[in-house]
Specification:
Number of helices: 0
Shape: globular
Distance between the termini: 30 Å
Structural class: mainly beta
Radius of gyration: 16 Å
Length: 202
């Protein structure tokens, strides 16, 4: 694998590391391979660290039918929304209706995904979500609101159970595909914590 010798600071992706609730590392990086990465600071041997990876939705690798639009009330001043008329109720569409987020984990574990979303009504409240080449989760019936709220990715095809991914250390890809137009996506977080974020997140 290529050896990365330089990094560029960007606000689009960040990883925060905590030990027993104390923040011991927080760095936002982008490398030439377009992956998120982490640096752990002050971690003592034998201590288990939490991993939290943040993504601004509009900064992913997106298909041509996803629009990056502006909204001053969002985390980074923008959000993603599929072009009107693109609804894929039964299965995800082609890659033009998909956005990918690449990330790297330093430790294996069980991970959850949370999204900062705006779902104004029952006809505009869903996406498809998967990690790597796994099965697509039907993230439907997101909490309806006229503002942005945090919602954990759950799968309507599995009794609306929250999805927990068992992931290895190394590189992965989180993919979000459109299901109903009108649903907005502001921010995403991948975490080995079972705790929903608050506010605009990290």
């Amino acid at each position: 694998a290529p050896i990365i010798t330089s990094y560029q600071y960007i606000p689009a992706q960040s990883i925060k590391t905590r030990v027993n609730g104390e923040l011991v590392g927080s760095l936002k990086l982008k490398d030439p391979l377009e992956t998120a990465d982490s640096v752990f600071l002050g971690r003592s041997q034998g201590q288990a660290a939490d991993t939290i990876i943040w993504f601004e939705a509009e900064c992913g690798q997106r298909g041509s039918k996803f629009q990056a639009l502006t909204d001053a009330s969002t985390s980074n001043g923008g959000y993603l929304e599929i072009q009107p008329g693109n609804n894929d109720y039964n299965s995800p569409g082609d890659t033009s209706k998909q956005v990918d987020y690449h990330f790297r984990l330093s430790k294996a574990g069980n991970y959850r995904v949370y999204g900062l979303v705006r779902a104004p009504n029952g006809n505009d409240d869903s996406f498809w979500v998967r990690i790597d080449n796994g099965s697509w989760a039907k993230w439907n019936s997101i909490e309806r609101s006229s503002s942005y709220v945090w919602d954990q990715v759950h799968d309507q095809l599995n009794g609306n159970q929250a999805v927990v991914w068992a992931l290895s250390a190394g590189e992965h890809t989180l993919s979000v595909a459109s299901r109903e137009d009108g649903t907005r996506l502001d921010k995403l977080v991948i975490s080995n914590q079972n705790a929903i974020p608050s506010g605009l997140g990290g």
